[in-house]
Design brief:
single chain; 87 residues; mainly alpha; two-stranded antiparallel sheet
């Protein structure tokens, strides 16, 4: 599992540790990590939306609306002043 990924410029850091990685390897690892993070966030949003629905909340509840954004292909990153910031 990938905990954190360095920037492209940090490939030299890997080489110093004896972990030579090509730029293609870093791109693949970054894409893999992004998919894992996004799918984890979607899973957590689904869980929260399900709890809200089980608690009798309607479609206007924040958790239900957040999951609706995932369903429409967006990735809500945070809420600031009552507005979602999307990816």
């Amino acid at each position: 599992m990938i905990a954190a990924l360095p920037h492209q410029a940090d490939a030299a850091w890997f080489a110093c540790l004896g972990l030579p990685l090509a730029a293609a390897d870093l791109r693949e690892a970054a894409a893999y990590a992004l998919v894992r993070v996004a799918s984890g966030a979607a899973t957590m949003a689904l869980h929260a939306a399900t709890l809200a629905r089980l608690a009798g909340q309607g479609p206007d509840h924040l958790f239900v609306r957040k999951y609706a954004l995932f369903e429409s292909g967006r990735w809500p990153l945070r809420v600031v002043a009552g507005a979602f910031h999307l990816f």
